[in-house]
Write a structure and sequence with these properties.
- InterPro entries: DNA_methylase_N6_adenine_CS (IPR002052), HemK-like (IPR004556), N5-glutamine_MTase (IPR050320), SAM-dependent_MTases_sf (IPR029063).
- GO terms for molecular function: nucleic acid binding; protein methyltransferase activity.
- The chain has 14 helices and 9 strands.
- By secondary structure, the chain is of the alpha/beta class.
- It has 2 domains: 98 residues, no CATH class; 246 residues, Rossmann fold.
- Strands 5-4-3-6-7-9-8 form a 7-stranded mixed β-sheet, with helices on both faces.
- The longest helix is centred in the middle third of the chain and has 24 residues.
- The termini are far apart.
Amino acid sequence: MPRCPGNNTLIPLLRKLSESLGEQQAKNELRWLIEHTRKEIGDGINIQQHMTAQSTEHKGARLWREQAARLPDEIERDSERLSSVQHAWLRQAISDRTERHKPLQYIIGEQQFGKTNIIVRPPVLIPRWETEEWVLRLAELINSHTDNVRDTQQGLRAPRPLNILEACTGSGCVALGLGCELADNSAQILGVDISDDALQLAMDNLVYNQMLLSNHVHFRKVDLQQPVHTLPAQLRAGDGEPGGWDMIVSNPPYVTPSEYRDLDADVREWEDIRALVPLPPGTTDPRNVPSEDLDPSGMSFVVQLAKLAKELGLASKDRDEDASLRLDSLPRLVVEIGSAEQAQAACQAMHDHGLNSTEVWKDMAGTDRVVLGYFKQ
């Protein structure tokens, strides 16, 4: 494979990235792009086709983690190791990143999430580290509960798997992350979404990560903004989960309209607004929604999920459930939010709909990030 001529230095590309992103982020992103280029871009490949192709192997780097900045001579050594085709792909990628504001994950085509590698493509929401963090923590909580239940059930009939409903599944990262992290055959997980783009991507990710799954995961198209009383039959029909739902988890739309206007272009211009901002029911074209019809708190979808939890019987002592599961020690509703004010509102919505105990988890940055609602008997 022919290598780049010496004048094809990477320094101008780093400078271009730095002007757009800042020096530290530019050095990190250039590192990830170079690593991707070496692994995925072969000599003679159609560059434009590969810009939309998905990679075929798992990578260890997590794009959100800071890494030590490279020195100029290390960058130059990278340049010498790239072929002319690879260098051309890299130039195009950096052009997309700086001029079109295309997110890095869309350029690379994937994002690691726990044990999974999630294929990403616009306009479906890119998995974030904040979501990965709470999903892994939730899996630890559920696994600890499962271990305790199994210890007390020695010699008795094993408890049935937990039935987990994931609302607003998007790329499927949460459902698949739980499907990989939870103990073998301890859960059945259904991810639902209204977006055809999201459902197709979730199904692609199910196939892509199938060998990693230790629990059954599947996906369906469901509009959760329908009247709550019409949803239970639709959600249960054909799914075959005995005992009904045990838990709802979700990274729902919660960005406020004012926050959305201030988002960076690489989010606002590329990712589906429906995954970010709660829109009125029945919205087909977000551009036609008057600003006065938008929820200024960003919490309307979280309230809808609290209503759904109540309608599905997650906030009731009269549920027909396997008592050996001891569900009162597990959250019935888990939702991601973005601020202390939203955490308070989510807690109130859960209490209003029968979840009589709540808990708030902070993320690694110290922001209130997840609200968990319990039903304590």
